[in-house]
Write a structure and sequence with these properties.
Blueprint (H helix, E strand, L loop, with lengths): L4 H12 L8 H17 L3 E5 L8 E5 L9 E6 L8 H4 L3 E3 L2 E3 L3 H16 L2 H4 L5 E6 L10 H9 L4 E3 L2 E2 L4 E6 L1 E10 L3 E2 L10 H13 L9 E9 L5 E2 L2 E10 L2 H15 L8 E10 L6 H17 L4 E5 L5 H6 L4 E3 L2 E5 L7 E3 L3 H18 L1
Parallel strand pairs: 3-6, 3-7, 7-17, 8-18, 9-16
Antiparallel strand pairs: 1-2, 2-6, 4-5, 5-19, 10-14, 10-15, 11-13, 12-14, 18-19
Helix pairs in contact: 1-4, 4-11, 9-11
Length: 376
């Protein structure tokens, strides 16, 4: 594989130096335009998919336009978590063997690495490996618009490789916790806290009871955790609050455990702690746990064999955070993650990309794709 880090960085710069948060459709569209040009230049068909005006476009890219099934689905996301203005404040910069910038490793480096892995891969060029590449626009907010498309495309693929960043220690990801976000709204009755305290129904008191009850649902041994992370309520210190709200984070390894928690929360809403209170439970997002099955273990062995041939030290991590691999794995498709270059500090000013990892990780992905074609 011929590779120039200077060329890679020149192509990475316009991907990083654009505001493309999940809620910035025009920025995501700019990234999609740039990526479209890259793939069209190497003969791939690019289909633009717009699932909502609230987000940017997604891209479905393939070297086999007439294929009913694919040998592999490659996946990445074009959005970031950063607000408008971030790219101008801290554009891509290189310091020694590190690159810094918003989304540099989460996951612009991976977006570009997929193209590099495919652009001169003989098996992709001659059609012996049928590839589909899915770049979505809304991963950082849970993929609410692109989820169904990703799952349906994955079901037409033998396996899924996601190019989120490898960990700084070189590990890839074979499992991820599932997660959900709940909004719980508490409705009481306002009254004067001095003159008519007994006439009021405190929504905040109900919220406090729920916080303690939710803490009791945590099972650290099983990896099921809940966190009441945001609360608000009340209008004044002398007013019994008629409204309060809590945002709750749920993480889990067991999808059945998550559904049991959901049922417990909804049952709790039917029997408020404070008489007269009304409670609404809304599950705003849900991402199932990513757990390897027997076919995934075979895929892990394939990746390890390629890494050993290349003299590349890798390992595997079970991650607490989610990715789109959660959806594809839950659909029964063997899925692995972390095929982008190594990095860290995600979602923060400190986000970094380890430049010395770029070429080896692209080479690893190429080797895995070549092996997938051979097993065909």
């Amino acid at each position: 594989m011929s590779f120039s880090l200077q060329d890679y960085l020149a192509k990475l710069e316009p991907l990083v130096n654009v505001d493309c948060g999940s809620r910035t459709p025009e920025g995501v569209a700019a990234v999609a335009d740039y990526v479209t040009g890259l793939y069209q230049a190497i003969g791939y068909r690019v289909t633009r998919r717009q699932f909502s005006d609230a987000c940017g476009p997604c891209l479905e890219i393939t070297n086999a336009p007439d294929a009913e099934r694919y040998d592999v689905m490659l996946s990445g996301h074009m959005d970031t978590v950063f607000p408008v203005g971030t790219a101008a404040e801290r554009p891509l910069r290189i310091e020694g063997d590190m690159a810094y910038g918003p989304g540099v490793s989460d996951m612009k480096a991976g977006v570009l690495a997929l193209w590099y892995a495919l652009k001169d891969l003989p098996q992709a060029m001659d059609g012996s490996l049928k590839v589909v590449v899915c770049y979505n626009c809304d991963e950082e907010i849970g993929s609410p618009y692109s989820r169904d498309w990703l799952i349906e495309t994955a079901k037409r693929s033998a396996c899924v490789l996601v190019a989120e960043a490898a960990r700084a220690n070189g590990q890839l990801v074979k499992a991820r916790k599932g997660n959900a976000k709940y909004r719980i709204a508490f409705h009481g009755k306002a009254s004067h806290a001095g003159n008519a305290l007994a006439e009021g129904i405190s929504a905040i008191t109900e919220l406090a009871h729920w916080t303690l009850a939710i803490n009791q649902m945590v099972d650290l041994d099983a990896g099921t955790t809940l966190n009441v992370g945001l609360i608000k309520g009340g209008t004044g210190v002398n007013v019994v609050p008629d409204f309060a709200e809590a945002i709750v984070d749920l993480r889990f390894w067991d999808n059945d455990a998550a559904e049991a928690i959901d049922a417990r929360l909804r049952a709790l809403a039917k029997t408020p702690f404070v008489a007269g209170c009304r409670v609404e439970v809304e599950r705003q997002t849900f991402k199932p746990a990513m757990r390897p099955n027997a076919d995934t273990e075979a895929l892990i062995a394939l990746v390890e064999a390629v890494a050993a041939e290349q003299g590349l030290a890798i390992g595997w991590q079970e991650a607490g955070g989610g990715s789109d691999a959660n959806f594809t794995a839950a659909a029964g498709v063997p899925s692995l993650d972390g095929f982008g270059p190594q990095g860290g500090g995600w979602h923060a000013v400190s986000e970094f990309l380890m430049l010395e990892s770029v070429e080896p990780r692209i080479r690893l992905l190429q080797g895995v794709l070549a092996r997938l074609a051979a097993r065909g």
